[in-house]
Amino acid sequence: MSLSFYDTLAREKRAFVPADPDRVTLYVCGVTVYSYAHIGNARPAVVFDLAFRLLRHIFGEDHVLYARNITDVDDKINQAALDQGVDISAITTKFAEIYQADVAALGCLPPTFEPRATAHIPQMTAMISALIERGHAYQADGHVLFDTQSFPDYGKLSGRSLDDLLAGARVEVADYKRHPADFVLWKPAKPGEPSWQSPFGAGRPGWHIECSAMIETVLGLPIDIHGGGHDLIFPHHENEIAQGRCAHDGADYARVWMHNGFLTQSAEKMSKSIGNIRTIHDLLAEAPGEALRWALLSAHYRAPLEWNPELIAQSKRALDRLYGVLQRWPAAPEAWPAQVPEAVLDALEDDLATPRALAELFALARIAETAPTEAEKLAASASLLAAGRLMGFFNQTPLAWFSGGSDADFTAKVEALISERAQARQSKNWAEADRIRAELTALNVEVLDSATGVSWRLKG
RNA sequence: GGCCUGAUGGCGGAGUGGUGACGCAGCGGACUGCAAAUCCGUCCACCCCGGUUCGAUUCCGGGUCAGGCCUCCA
Q1: Interface confidence (ipTM) of the complex
Q2: Average pLDDT, 10 consecutive residues per value, chain A (460 residues)
Q3: Which domain CATH number covers A353?
Q4: Stated in angstroms, how far is A244 CA from B65 C1'?
Q5: Number of H helices, E strands in chain A
Q6: CA-to-CA distance for A195 and A283, rounded, in angstroms?
Q7: Which residue's CA lies closest to nucleotide B36 at its C1' atom?
Q8: Residues A387, A343 contacting (CB under 8 angstroms)
């Protein structure tokens, strides 16, 4: 199986061949840092982290460049700063750090680059100037607007025409626009707002221009893959293509467009404006990051995923099962690093078919438990470890997983009780053994007797 | 109104023109002092109506329902 991805623009799955296999480029729209990111924001972070890991596996760690931006210019940031009486940088610094820690806890590798909008204002104004020079942008009422009618391919990504947009317009259109779909590249600052000097007056950039400017600066055009949430297809990515191509006389912008589906709750999109969100931060207090990652990858990335407590519980149980295998059949040093099994790679290379990849993990677990020889069991366990690690799982020892953050005192207490119980069992004092087990159960500890010894785990 | 997705068993979620993935839960059994973990077995599905076909859950048409974008949005 060769690597293929579904391309939103082509509307089909296509073989993925990077422009330069020594320099594969991936850009993903990150978050606007004005408050805690919700678990829906984590889906693209995790999905494209998986893509990043897969590309590194295929093309080599040093041959993949991954940029995930941080938007730190925005109305909501301004509002938050105003509400709290602080500088916008206080807001953006705080929530950018929280976001980075949160997604790291979900097993996401640090991207190669995390460019910030405020660090690329000159590149944005240069791009806007290029658009004006080429007749693709115009100034009106203090704004600079992109002239959508100057770009014949406008609407191709989202499958709509300028006429459709006229017909479907639901909102008041600013009268200074030549066409309702024209979008802002630069807007004048209101009093008190952060602003930057530019050839078009003091102001700040529109939302779309930042990604185009940062892509060009950090990765160079065209990039191989541009990713983001499904809701960014229109207008954000449509506008990126328009400005990105027009600034360079129609040159290619991104070779593949990938979009992840939404998280839903009661079948409804999880969204801050609806208010039905769960923050990553809060969820991490309730469940291990790996379990949340498992949950996010349990459905195919383009499908909607219903988010609920049962999903998290099931994900944790799935990892319990696999960590149990790793604990019982610890991969021998000589068996590690093991090859990632073909079946797992096949699944991932087929447009990140994670449900199939996860099913293959269970198949490896079954082999590890049932193979006739210990060598085969250990080999299967090593493969499981390799496959899981490729996907960003098994970042801790089984012991650490099952004892889930227990402190030394607690562990010592549990070990002492288990030792007492072992003595009771040896003298066949079953009543005492069961009493001690009940005591452990009360501590939320589950005891697992086996031929080779006793282990324990915290119950979910 | 325009554009666009999707509807699979108790739950999550793949896939396929004909032997009904995988996981969780349930049930029966093995193992165990008893459990747990593990193993073996097992119950349960393809929204509705037409069409194509020897045969459709899978292809085509229509319908119903749900959801998304068109405004900030992962």
Answers
A1: 0.94
A2: 88 92 96 93 96 97 97 90 91 95 97 96 96 94 92 90 71 77 91 89 92 96 95 93 94 94 87 86 94 96 91 94 94 76 94 95 95 92 95 94 86 93 93 94 90 83
A3: 1.10.730.10
A4: 40
A5: 16, 15
A6: 36
A7: A448
A8: no
Looking at residue A448, its amino acid is L
Token representation of residue A400: 């650490």
The distance (Å) linking the CA of A356 with the C1' of B16 is: 14
Residue A256 · residue A5 · CB < 8 Å: yes
Residue whose CA is minimally distant from B70 C1': A168
CA–CA separation, A253 vs A245, rounded Å? 6
Would you state the pLDDT for residue A272?
82
**Whole-number Å distance between alpha carbons of A260 and A232:** 10
Q: Token pair for residue A149?
A: 């009618």
Cβ neighbours of residue A199 under 8 Å, at least 6 residues apart?
Answer: A125, A129
**CATH number where A118 lies:** 3.40.50.620
Looking up tokens 């940062």, which residue turns up?
A214
The 10 Å Cβ neighbour count of residue A351 is: 20
Q: Token pair of A329, please?
A: 């059949």
Structural domain harbouring A222: 4-260
Using the structure, give the distance in angstroms from the CA atom of A370 to the C1' atom of B70, rounded to a whole number. Answer: 55
* Same domain flag for A99 and A178: yes
Q: Please give the DSSP secondary-structure letter assigned to residue A350.
A: B
Q: Tell me, yes or no, whether A335 and A429 share the same domain.
A: no
The pLDDT of residue A276 = 85
List the Cα angle A387/A390/A392 in 5-degree steps. Answer: 110
The single-letter DSSP state of residue A373 is S
